[in-house]
Amino acid sequence: MGEFSLELNEDQIQIQKWVHEFAENVVRPAAEEWDEREEFPWPVVEEAAKVGLYGFDFMAQAMLGDETGLTLPIALEELFWGDAGIGLSIFGSGLAAAGIAGNGTPEQTLEWVPQCYGTADDVKLGAFCVSEPDAGSDVSSLRTRAVYDQANDEWVLNGTKAWITNGGIADVHVVVAAVDPELKGRGQASFIVPPNTPGLSQGQKYKKHGIRASHTSEVVLEDVRIPGSCLLGGKEKLDEKLAKAREAQKNPQVSSGKQPAMATFEATRPSVAAMAVGIARAAYEYSLDYAQERVAFGKPIIMNQAIAFMLADMATQIDASRLLVHRAAWLSRNGTFTNAEGSMSKLHAGRTAVWVTERAIQILGGYGYTREYPVERWHRDAKIMDIFEGTEQIQQLVIGRAISGLRIE
User: Is a pLDDT exceeding 70 seen at residue 165?
Assistant: First the structure.
């Protein structure tokens, strides 16, 4: 078990500098263009693949090769400092990879995670499909069904997924579906839908408030047939889980295990929080520079307490968020969350990103409200950090249950 420390090691410092340089030189100059185009930034992702930032090797090193758990959050903060929409396009496949690694067997992980990325010369994408038009935060109410065809050893999937990053354009889709709807969240399983599987198609593409360079759409599943081997974790493990869940219905003291979607989100929440820190830091640094250069009433505006105090609060909240992220990331790698630390990090960092970017607009005044300056884009991008992978209220619910030990509804 690695010792918790706030001091980055030499490898982490080098990765931090490397990602920051990529964000500064490649991502940030392209951010406005791809935000305006609202299209997936293939050239930037392909460049990330060429330098090794987008790919299985980097993700394996960041997620498994670092006993501190800090490498991935450090990289994400720097990349999202560059731009959130492009950053999510580069790291969006990571959620699918996490869904496979968190629910699949070692053999399935080795087979399918690399296919979520492809190679530097042939980039592929992954998508993690949970939310539905009528089931966002309430993942226990998923209507997408998976029915086992025992004669052919196949699973048949039907349903519609909503708000899916890389949905429809991904090569590998990880789909969470209900196997036994009566068991709600405990009756769900995760499935791999291989590339070019008939019956899977892209539904509507969403026009979003922020992170517009990231592709978000519906995924429609119509009689999608996949081999039995594409059930993550395997049939034997699923049957055992369903049996425990049915027993738990009769006896609430019996544990029925985690929902597959929740197992993925618990592992990735510190990463999402790190993304929020990156956005907030970008807005803070820009505002600080502006306040030192902008002159009003004969002096730089930072000489006014109203501005200086806003910047002081911004810096404090960003540092507090980063500390929560690093603690949660370390615990995720070295132990377990005891008081919902992953949710705490996302709750605080998401709120901070929204508040800091709003203050940045205030500091820039009218200029901050125009699209000629990046702070309005960062403000639009920040809001999603309060919504996806569990809304602010869902994080409060998770934390409330953890600190009380009660099933708060």
Answer: yes
